[in-house]
Specification:
The structure holds 2 protein chains of 2 kinds. Chain A is an alpha/beta fold. Chain A is about 45% helix and about 15% strand. Chain A is built from 16 helices and 12 strands. Chains A and B meet through helix 14 and helix 16 of A and helix 10, helix 12 and strand 11 of B.
Chain lengths: ~450, ~475
Amino acid sequence: MSIVTVQLGQCGNQVGQELFDIICNDAQEGQRKAYRESSTERFFRETTHGDLVARAVLVDMEPKVINSSMAKAAKCGRWQYGDRSHFSQKQGSGNNWANGFCVHGPRHTEVLEDLVRREAEHCDRLAGIMPVMSVAGGTGSGVGTYVTQRLRDIYPNSFILNHLTWPYGTGEVIVQNYNSVLTLAHLYQLSDAILVHENDVVQRICSQLLNIKHASFGDVNRVIGHQLGSVLQPALTGDCHGVYSRNPLGELVSGLVCHPEYKLLSVCTVPQMASTSIAYSTFSWPGPLKHLRQMLISNTKLEEGIDWQVRPSVRPGGTERTRSRTGPGFNTSLANLLILRGKDVYSAETGGFGDPALYTSWLSPEQGFNLWKCPVPFNKYEKSATLVSNSQALLEPLDNMVAKAWNMFASRAYIHQYTKFGISEEDFLDSFTSLEQVISSYKQLC
Amino acid sequence: MTQSVVVQVGQCGNQVGCRFWDLALREHAHVNKKGVYDEALSSFFRNVDSRRSSGGACDIGGRIHYLKARAVLVDMEEGVVNEILQGPLREVFDSTQLLTDVSGSGNNWAVGHMTYGSAYREQIVDKLRRAAEHCDCLQCFFLIHSMGGGTGSGLGTRVLSLLEEEFPEVCRIVTSVFPSPEDDVITSPYNSVLALRELTEHADCVLPVENQSLVDIVNKIKHMSHGGKPASAIKRDSAIISGQGGLGGAEKPFDAMNNIVANLLLNITSSARFQGSLNMDLNEIAMNLVPFPRLHYLVPSLTPLYTLADVNVPTRRLDQMFSDAFNKDHQLIRADPKHSLYLACALMVRGNVQVSDLRRNIERLRPSLPFVSWNQEGWKTGLCSVPPVGHSHSLLALANNTCVKPTFMDLQERFTKLYRKKAYLHHYLHVEGMEHSVFSEAVTSLSSLIEEYNHLDATKRRLMPDAPRLRIAT
């Protein structure tokens, strides 16, 4: 089954290009045949000449980024984008969500739907659609939300997994918090699951773990591509009896998103190290898995500076547990998906992740914990483990984002820029209300 | 890529505009070595081959034949425009882009705005429309004028409102030269206040520039270059006031000052024309820097002012450039942004600077700059990889800051001094369409603008509490 990726805006197109690059290299690298075929089927289609064409649609309101992404892909020689799979205009969205959602989206909706439809028709079976975008700008966030809305109407039975990149906390665009709030509030109603990467965190991975002194956006995007690739490449899930899963998005969504109020997913991968060091490292499973578990519990996003003091509390006799019983800084999970790739996956001991103390009291760990395995190593790492979790990990960044946006809204700054394109103060209030609801739900998890 | 059209009105507007086109050609000549008409050139110039039958317009990618500026030149007396047409830039303009009259506006806003405004309305709209039609995707109109005279101030603001009427979706960025207190035009306060009202109502962004600051900057550079020490000699053609390397012949009196303003316009559009790792388009400037529709006065500052010629002297450190941008000596109006309140700030960096340098400097300077409570991280940044001629890197800072208030209050005071005595009023009231109410409305508009800035300033010292969040019933 195949996934159609929709790359939106500058960030979406740059991240998407790195993702396809990593997936293609990983699959083609003398791996086992079943893995390669499954991965290729999932992300690429073959032309009559045997070239690999990515199952992707590129959308942006100005042409520069799409041109450079397509050129980069063509240059590597191993895969390329479809010649007619892109759409761009001359003038961007000006960092304005309203401009993207109310003007550009509806204006070009037919062309965009058509592009996605053509890609979907090339798939034997459609596993789902993955829009990739950022939330800070105008096109990725505004047009991306509009496109998600249209796709939800056109494909009511398909899975839609949105991948979002959250901006640096210290601001790259002044109105980024408004754009983020509007995007998240709308996507919550439309998406099946929302997978998030934060620029701050990925930047730290680059500087602290990968030893890149002056990380560029290319480096950041490669890390995102690596983490996302490790989630989406073929794996043996619970239901599939020895064959690579044919429904990756479906299983991911049903395993992790058991309640519509809880859709935010975060990703961690261990190990992450400079490419020059990979060849020299070997390790066994217990070490990284222990780190990963503690990273989950203490809400540390990097495999460095992990706080080992945070522990789950011992649950008393009854099944009820109040918030105060868990220690400060403890990250309660709703559900977790652990993906192991590489050597000796069958012998890895993962019991620690099934501990009921990690999970909220109203779900049993059998329902909360999912495990996928794949004996084929991913992206040159002999062994790697990825944890996708639906937990309180994103609560703090979300809360901060809403707080800043609310403060700005209280003085009505910049609102006229949005109202002139059709987004009213009412719409803002609705979005704030939805997100406060989400924040409240996550806060009460215990 | 998008195109922009420059509309220059009045003597000051045309003289500054002339310097702008000269420096623009110089900049593109520096970058475009192959003589190919590319996207960057097309944002300000058309490529015309008169041998072609279709009227001559050439597409991107071909060789350069004749470059024609995307401009409209308006003046109510012929002297300045004639001089341009006889000078080295005559090839860049064709007669359909010009609008002139003979007698001038007599330093009278009303004559410029009402008399000439009505008389030439059709022709102006026609020329603007023609310039717009030559553009594939028109993004922005740049209006250059002065506030103190009659044509630039009166007719210029009339053109502004016509632009809003005819092209409501195209951004309007206005560069206004404010008069200094020692200005020799006695009625400049009247003209400026009347024009200011139009700017507040009809412009998307205004870049105010004061003659006095330009004079100070020019003096600073001249002082530096005549300093005497050989090590401090300034590298040729790197000073922000220099027009060397351009087409213009010998330097004329206001040229040094006008070059600064021309450089301002070049830097603001650099990201729209050239490649960069973090592009900042013109509509993003208007979006991010204007939190409330009337408060759209952006104080510009340009650094570095010059590069030293001696290669043995280490190039001025990057960090020094960032610090200077917030220094009151580098602002183009007489104001001190560091002691007033920032509503938002944009940093446009050109040249060989990395994201990490930019972020580091923002972190470093942030504590000393007072930002309004709801916009503590109010920075908009852009990186363009092509530096300006003669420099390895440069920085343009645009600050939406309450430090414009003293300039406005000063203007209000000078206006009131004259208006109280009804001095010179009869010149204005004689013009058809002009009444006392026009004056009083203009003053009211200015007072309320000052009041809005006052209101924001009042929050500066106080630590504003966060607005209470919505509470969800559980």
